[in-house]
């Protein structure tokens, strides 16, 4: 039996394909959000300087899930030639696109500000709140993890601990997490040899990670916009022709 063709068969077939791309853009956003939130363990020591990325990551997860559902809804609306569903998908995707453009703009605008303002705040917070290698508080644990994984010490270098709360309570000039090997006898909190402790600070390494996350999120958001725009325009076109 021959396939029945409506006056809009070709347009509907195109929209089926484009709705598939819309769904894929949702998967892209979900992947970006998951990646950023998964990598936040190291940059969490930056405090408010990296918190905006964590929130944007959650926003990407939410938008991604909604976009995938809109892709299915758009496919269903095209199949049934339902103007109400098509209008809902069109308006929802326009909102999603506006949010994505805003996210990309905010990230690109905010990152230089974060980089300029973060250093002094992070250094002051470290000197005041860091307690030591085996301390159970979250702040110390996060810094110990960051210094061990990034192979760095302090914000600028190991001298950041001089005169800090940590030095006053422990009598050590640096924590064990600064050591290249915490199991050696030379890792005693006083031996500052290049062979014993990491000489480089963590700030630049943390900012490199944050920069990669920022620009990947921004680029991914704009990429999702580029994928979604043809579907939005085709949805509007089919909606108008069905009127």
Automatic annotation (TrEMBL):
<dbReference type="InterPro" id="IPR000301">
    <property type="entry name" value="Tetraspanin_animals"/>
</dbReference>
<protein>
    <recommendedName>
        <fullName>Tetraspanin</fullName>
    </recommendedName>
</protein>
<dbReference type="InterPro" id="IPR008952">
    <property type="entry name" value="Tetraspanin_EC2_sf"/>
</dbReference>
<feature type="transmembrane region" description="Helical">
    <location>
        <begin position="14"/>
        <end position="36"/>
    </location>
</feature>
<feature type="transmembrane region" description="Helical">
    <location>
        <begin position="56"/>
        <end position="78"/>
    </location>
</feature>
<keyword id="KW-0812">Transmembrane</keyword>
<keyword id="KW-1133">Transmembrane helix</keyword>
<feature type="transmembrane region" description="Helical">
    <location>
        <begin position="85"/>
        <end position="114"/>
    </location>
</feature>
<dbReference type="GO" id="GO:0005886">
    <property type="term" value="C:plasma membrane"/>
</dbReference>
<dbReference type="InterPro" id="IPR018499">
    <property type="entry name" value="Tetraspanin/Peripherin"/>
</dbReference>
<dbReference type="Pfam" id="PF00335">
    <property type="entry name" value="Tetraspanin"/>
</dbReference>
<keyword id="KW-0472">Membrane</keyword>
<feature type="transmembrane region" description="Helical">
    <location>
        <begin position="215"/>
        <end position="240"/>
    </location>
</feature>
<comment type="similarity">
    <text>Belongs to the tetraspanin (TM4SF) family.</text>
</comment>
């Amino acid at each position: 039996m021959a396939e029945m063709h409506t006056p809009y068969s070709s347009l509907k077939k195109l929209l089926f394909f484009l709705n598939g791309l819309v769904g894929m853009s949702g998967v892209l956003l979900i992947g970006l959000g998951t990646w950023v939130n998964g990598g936040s363990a190291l940059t969490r020591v930056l405090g408010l300087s990296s918190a905006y990325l964590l929130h944007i990551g959650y926003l990407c997860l939410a938008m991604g899930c909604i976009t995938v559902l809109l892709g299915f809804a758009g496919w269903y609306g095209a199949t049934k030639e339902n103007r109400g569903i098509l209008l809902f998908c069109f308006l929802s995707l326009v909102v999603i696109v506006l949010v994505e453009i805003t996210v990309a703009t905010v990230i690109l605008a905010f990152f230089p500000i974060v980089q300029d303002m973060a250093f002094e705040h992070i250094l002051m917070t470290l000197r005041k709140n860091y307690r030591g290698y085996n301390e159970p508080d979250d702040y110390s644990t996060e810094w110990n993890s960051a210094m061990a994984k990034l192979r760095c010490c302090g914000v600028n270098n190991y001298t950041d601990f001089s005169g800090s709360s940590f030095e006053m309570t422990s009598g050590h000039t640096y924590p064990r997490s600064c050591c290249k090997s915490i199991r050696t006898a030379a890792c005693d909190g006083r031996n500052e040899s290049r062979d014993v402790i990491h000489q480089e600070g963590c700030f630049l390494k943390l900012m490199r990670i944050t920069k990669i996350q920022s620009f990947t999120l921004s680029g991914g958001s704009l990429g999702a916009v580029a994928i979604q725009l043809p579907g939005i325009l085709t949805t509007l076109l089919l909606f108008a022709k069905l009127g």
